[in-house]
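Late entry, 5CA complex.
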Amino acid sequence: MRLSRYFMPILKENPKEAEIVSHRLMLRTGMIRQQSQGIYSWLPLGKRVLDKVNAIVREEQNRAGAVELLMPTLQSAELWQESGRYEAYGKEMLRIADRQDRPMLYGPTNEEMITDIFRSYVKSYKNLPLNLYHIQLKFRDEIRPRFGTMRSREFLMKDAYSFDLTKEDAIHSYNKMFVAYLRTFARLGLRAIPMRADTGPIGGNHSHEFIILAETGESEVFSHKDFVNFDIPSEDTDFDDVAGLQAVFDKWTSIYAATSEMHDEAAFDAIPETDRMSARGIEVGHIFYFGTKYSEPMGAKVQGPDGKEHPVHMGSYGIGPTRLVPAIIEASHDENGIIWPASVAPFDVVVINMKPGDEGCDRLCDSLYAGLGKAGKDVLYDDTDDRAGTKFATADLIGVPVQVIVGPRSAASGEVEVKDRKTGAREVMTLEAAMNRLVG
Ligand code: 5CA
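Prediction complete; structure with ligand written out below:
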């Protein structure tokens, strides 16, 4: 992408409304724009990061055996009357009427709709287990939307829903998502701690929130320090291995971790003082097992091996991609801007032409841009007429992991400078060596 033809509206000043660093940096880099309170557009730079986050979320859901579909954002109130949540959900639900005055709503979550899909097609235990998910916009009329897309009214959610014949099978489905979540957050460069959690309007009694630690987090959390030493389950995890997944779950829940709502002071005080951690955190995922809470009233039953009909045991599993993007920034930035983990960076490399119009600079930059692109890299090519200082500041601000700086003096000898955004280390090398470094 040539910067001169891109749309990346960088703000010079720090926006006044932004209270936390991720919100400030997302506005300054032109990743997002607020359209009305708690409702955002994702501008091209932000959209690139969001797409990369979604791709990782999707890969790990698929690996764990979940199957993707897409449900609509608008739902009919009737479905919610069946489960009894239409009245219970309260003011967070945006209720609307269509031209025939039929009551509709903008979905805050999808348990009812997925249960309706399930009951329409699945009649036998032989079709289980089943886990269906989508990545879709939700609306919750939060009282205090704040911190940009961290807590917004309209936001993206990956929500998965599992169906099983028995509680035991449902716990295995739960464990699959538990392991998938550990892998997902690790691949996003985050260390998330699973914590016993309150279930709120979703319901059930077996639930974990995945929390990443950050000073600006909204939740107060208490945990054992040892989580930092735990291994993340590997890529070749066998998701059909019931005992193996249970062992991972047991390990990750063997030491104390709870949010303030579930905090047990006596249990926390029993941990040696040097191993205690009391901090603030951001909830990036939340998983629930709620048994037959929706399947019973909505008649989602399957025939079991005994020939009788049984309401299915369900769970739901949420991740917030539009919250994850600022959460990653909270975890990875410095005074000059964002430092993207390579897995979600909007571009892999930024090529900075210090003097567009200079024959040597243009030639080297064109060759880098074409060569890196051919090798499958996402390249941003700063071919603008901005001052060198502005270009460097922009490259640091947007946090692309590697910068290749091409100036007239070094270009004359066929050399470029490669800068690592995270460490700030710079190295002068030939064009060929730079290509090998970046592609190899
Ligand atoms: N149906 C269940 C799981 S699929 C559910 O709705 N769970 S939830 O309420 O915990 O939301 C799931 C995830 O969505 C949260 O962990 C969080 O990452 C994200 N999320 C929830 N509310 C917001 C919000 N207002 N802004 C941004 N992300 C949010």
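The chain has two domains: 7-338, 349-439. Will revisit in the morning.
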